[in-house]
Specification:
heterodimer; A: mainly beta; seven-stranded mixed sheet; globular; B: seven-stranded mixed sheet
Chain lengths: 120, 107
């Protein structure tokens, strides 16, 4: 059974940093691209970042480019999102999601999400 | 950036009725269009991929159609568990984008 468990969310001040983790199990982690999708309170879904199965290629939404860094550790079956220079508008539930191929595809499995609140 | 516009924003229907949800893209996304269902407090769930293919475990009452820029999700007969928010998403171009969602609520 595919499972994705996000951790690392919490309250952080504007300008601060946070690192989210997503522990994966139930599939061959290195064979699949992964991504992060966020949802501000009461709002819709917004794609944040994606990474290929090998970790070679990374992609970012313009809203986070230069501030967030996605990475993965296949020895730990874990996906990361390093978030720097956080802003109030980054407040959201952050979901980790598995894609359906090593390079692209749909998000076929999602974690339960972790809440990030950016506030002073 | 490809903008996905979903309509209506809210659909008020009774159990047993047919639901028709629309997703329109600002430019062609070929067949790289998917639908997700999200219930309150839960993560999204993949319903339909590549326009018309049901994901594993999705009931046959859910169907997708369309091509290019105009897509439709149809729920043939609403069950109580179908009342939720539905999002379309494209992977034709970066950045990946989602529609704003359609809430299907009980009338």
């Amino acid at each position: 059974e595919v499972q994705l468990l996000e951790t690392g969310g919490g309250l952080v001040q504007p300008g601060g940093s946070l690192r989210l983790s997503c522990a994966a199990s139930g599939f061959t982690f290195s064979s699949y691209a992964m991504g992060w999708v966020r949802q501000a309170p009461g709002k819709g879904l917004e794609w944040v970042s994606a990474i290929t199965g090998s970790g070679t290629n990374t992609f970012y939404a313009d809203s986070v480019k230069g501030r967030f860094t996605i990475s993965r550790d296949s020895s730990r079956d874990t996906l990361y999102l390093q978030m720097d220079s956080l802003r109030a508008e980054d407040t959201a539930v952050y979901y980790c999601a598995k894609r359906t191929s090593s390079s692209s595809g749909w998000f076929d499995y999602w974690g339960q999400g972790t809440l990030v609140t950016v506030s002073s | 950036e490809i903008v996905l516009t979903q309509s209506p924003a809210t659909l008020s229907l009774s159990p047993g009725e047919r639901a028709t949800l629309s997703c329109r893209a600002s430019q062609s996304v070929s067949n790289y269009l998917v639908w997700y269902q999200q219930k309150p407090g839960q993560a999204p769930r993949l319903l339909i991929y590549d326009v018309s293919n049901r994901a594993t475990g999705i009931p046959a009452r859910f169907s997708g159609s369309g091509s290019g820029t105009d897509f439709t999700l149809t729920i043939s007969s609403l069950e109580p568990e179908d009342f939720a928010v539905y999002y379309c998403q494209q992977r034709s171009n970066w950045p990946l984008t989602f529609g704003g969602g359609t809430k299907v609520e009980i009338k």
